[in-house]
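An example makes the point: we print one protein in full, the chain in one-letter code, the fold tokenised, without further comment:
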Amino acid sequence: MTSRGVFSSRLGFILAASGSAVGLGNVWGFPSQVASNGGAAFVLMYLILAFVLAYPVLMAELLIGRATESNVVDALGKVSGGRSGRAVGMWGIATVSLILAFYGIVGGWMLSYTLEALASLAGLDQLAQWLIASSLSRNILFCGLFMLLTVGIVSGGVVNGIERWSVRLMPTLFALMLLLFGYVMTQDGAMDGLRVYLLPDFTEALNPDLLISAMGQAFFSMSLGVGTMLIYGSYVSHKENLPKLGASVALVDIGVAVLAGLLIIPAMYVALHNGVEIFGENGQLLAEDTLIFTVLPSLFTTMGSVGLVVACAFFLLMSIAALTSSISMLEVPVSYVVENRKVARNKAVWIIAAIIFSLSVLILLNFETLFGFVIALTTRYSQPLLGLMLCIFAGWVWHRDRILDELKKGDAAAEHSWFWRVWPWYVRFVCPVIILLMFYRSL
């Protein structure tokens, strides 16, 4: 197994896997969902559903990955004993590649906004304007730069690339978040935002639309269904207790999402206090790209020169969140090409990154038509269905004895644990029904 690479420490795995899970979905998606779904009621249901739905599917990926010690195509092929598993694996690779194609574009925007704050601090106003003006040349350049950063990390392999950088990037992300939160809470208006975020309206908690949104957010924020967690699971030592490791990853991921909300919702109310419009025509809080690229930059502008430093820290935080996810996404097709097609790792990384970058350029050239379409196709339709397939493989196709044997490697008493009493039937019956319901509602 040493030839594949193994995470050298438990902390390394937890930070890498939670880094994969912690992406822009947590830092801009989660606060946006909170804003448009009744504040704290959404936070409460998200916390419940993250463990009720996302954690069992996360465990399915980690268990299949570690038991097979393979890339996603070979792993699902071994579990299913046939072509159906391999076909689902290829579907996962196609989906994750498309996700990375649009993710690279957004990651590039985060980098350009980070540099814009630095350029403004340095008094380079013309450059600063170019960096935030949406032009094809800027978009292609920064998407390429973001992909190069991803390539640089993934080509180093599991220990010297992914683990080494995750251990540096994730603590930096937490530190930046806490510093920004501390600063925002000293501003007028922040307490109003904190109340919206922390005081639930329980009449909203069981609203079907809110539940569907919370479920989707829990699922997508842990980057489930596309093989990233399966791949990371395949690099975990057999001595580790997987249910505990999975719980640690889920907790870090949820923690970052909740912390992002604690930062962004009060920041929006500080912006409101400073005269920035934060509500749309429908009375809802502005969300997603409008929130990140219009509301918050307007807020930073009202803060004067301090605002440039805060803007730089905020967009650096967003860039790191994007990067910790993109490295896990690139690893999915890379591991397949290295193991199945016997291509040298460095060469495989460059070839696949070039193909995905070409897809990004294609999206940029047809932005109005393709950008929203690719996001909906992958995250709204493909990801839940892939998650459903993983539940079917783990719950119905894979032999229970083999799953138990895998669990016993890290915990001799696994047979008597709560996890073993609940998880096998839960992933077999409950998860598929919930995912199908969510998918049906989203249509």
Summary: The two ends are 43 Å apart (CA to CA). The CA atoms of residues 181 and 304 lie 18 Å apart.
